[in-house]
Every structure is written in C-alpha cells, then in structure tokens.
Amino acid sequence: MPWRESLSPARMERVALVAPVESCREMLAEVSLSAAVELDLPYTPGDGPEEVERAAASAAVSGPVAGLVGWVPNRALPALTATLAPLGAGVVPLAHPRGLQPPTLLTSPGRARLSRTLVDTYGTVPYADVDPSRLAALAYVVMFGMMFGDVGHGVILVLVGLVLRSGRVPRLAKLERAWRFVTGAGLVSVVFGALYGEAFARPDWSRCCGSSRCPAPSR
User: Are strands 38-39 and 90-93 parallel, antiparallel or unpaired?
Assistant: First the structure.
C-alpha cells in the first residue's frame, strides 16, 4: 500500500446488499467472513455465531428479495461483488445521505500499530481527515530522545528493542510490537546524548574519552 494512501482513512461507499430471501443468510455469512461491510442494523451487533440470524431477521424484504444497507471501503467493492455473485446476491452503490458521516476505517494492516493506539487515546480520526499516527510516532520518538538524551542509556534502549523484536523472552511477547518505538527512541537518545555530551548521566564523558583519569561526577 502506498505510504500516502496509508496516511488517510479509506474511502467508504454507501451500498445495499441484496439477495434472494433464501440466500440472505449465506450472503451475510460471506459478508461476515470478509469483514468488509459495516451494516446499518437496528441493534448493536456482537460477535457470536447467532449474529448472522439476527442480521437476516433485520433485512428489509420486498417480494423474493431481501436487502440490508451499510458501508464498504471503496477498494473492497470488486472483491465483495465477486464473492457474492455465486449466491445470486449483489452490491448496489447508493448515494451518500446528506448529513450522515461515513464511518472511519483507517488503513492499518494487521495488528494496530502502537502509534495508532496512542492516537486513539485522544479520539478517533474523523472521516476524510489525515491519519496522524505516523507523524505522531515520529514526534514521540524525537521528543523522547531530546528529553532523555544519553548515549549510554540510549544504547541500552536499542538493545532492549532488539530483544523485544527477537521474541526470545516469552514474558515480553506482549510488548513485541513496541520494539520499533523502543529502538527508535534509543537511537535518537544516542544522537542527542552525543550532542549534549552525556553518557550514563556523566556530563563530562566527552572530555575524558581516551583518558585514564576522569573527574568524578558532580553531585
């Protein structure tokens, strides 16, 4: 996925899912597996196996056809249409209702990035706005390095980040996705520590490097 596209939420399309009444449950089962549609349902959906039956019971029926309305990412429309075609079902694009805000679907593949989790603590990015999670990650790392500028401690953070990435410590498995942040923060700390002339809280290390006699740290 191009990095520019990943900065903003996915474009959403308003659609109607229509199918013969006898195929409505099969259609909804396929939709559930695709995880590509946010249906407008008269209740708050859960994640149990009975949800397909509940959604089918909520479908609008007109003669032999049943239908539901929802939102689909624009890029997922072709695949969804091809998946539903063998069932005799279809996806019908609809006009966006005035005053109705499409749901936000951010383009973070796989598990959510740590930076996305940090941004979400302040609120969900409104639809069509720029996703600031990548910029926020860079800002967090740089600010941490500026405040924690220390060559020695930065190297330790880099090593910790590499250990997290290796996955060799089972107790730290839940923190594996934080390895980029920890490693990046460590590298920036090393850079600013070199600029500050500080290592392991010794502000005089750069003056006594290579000398057998270093002054004691000031208290």
Answer: unpaired
